[in-house]
């Protein structure tokens, strides 16, 4: 059984987690120069957003 979660990090990217380990970070601020991946630009532009679990399931 594998647990998959997509978590919107506070003031940061959408984190794709598999069994509790972050596998990739996807940009949700729109400023990344390496879309769809987060390149840390959210910190430079002062992106603000709440943390939330967007998606979670076990397969
Ligand atoms: S969320 Fe990190 S660069 Fe957009």
Strand order of the largest sheet: 3-2-1-4
Average of pLDDT: 95
Fold-level CATH name: Ribosomal Protein L9, domain 1
Radius of gyration: 12 Å
Task: Indicate how many domains the architecture comprises.
Answer: 1
Profile the largest sheet. 4 strands, antiparallel
Each distinct ligand:
FE2/S2 (inorganic) cluster
The CATH architecture would be: 3-Layer(aba) Sandwich
Structural class category? mainly beta
Euclidean distance between termini CA atoms: 5 Å
Total of DSSP H or I helical runs spanning 4+ residues: 1
**How do the helices and strands follow one another from N- to C-terminus?**
EEEHE
- β-strand number: 4
For this structure, what is the CATH homologous superfamily?
CDGSH iron-sulfur domain, mitoNEET-type
State the low-pLDDT regions, or none. none
Overall spatial form: elongated
Commentary on this structure:
Helices cover 8% and strands 41% of the residues. With 59 residues, it is mainly beta. A four-stranded antiparallel sheet has the order 3-2-1-4, with no helix packed on it. The longest helix has 5 residues, at 41-45. The termini are close together. 10% of the residues are buried. The model has no long low-confidence stretch (mean pLDDT 95).
Features:
59 residues, mainly beta, Ribosomal Protein L9, domain 1, four-stranded antiparallel sheet
List the helices and strands and how they pair.
Blueprint: E1 3-8, E2 14-18, E3 21-26, H1 41-45, E4 52-58
Bound molecules: FE2/S2 (inorganic) cluster.
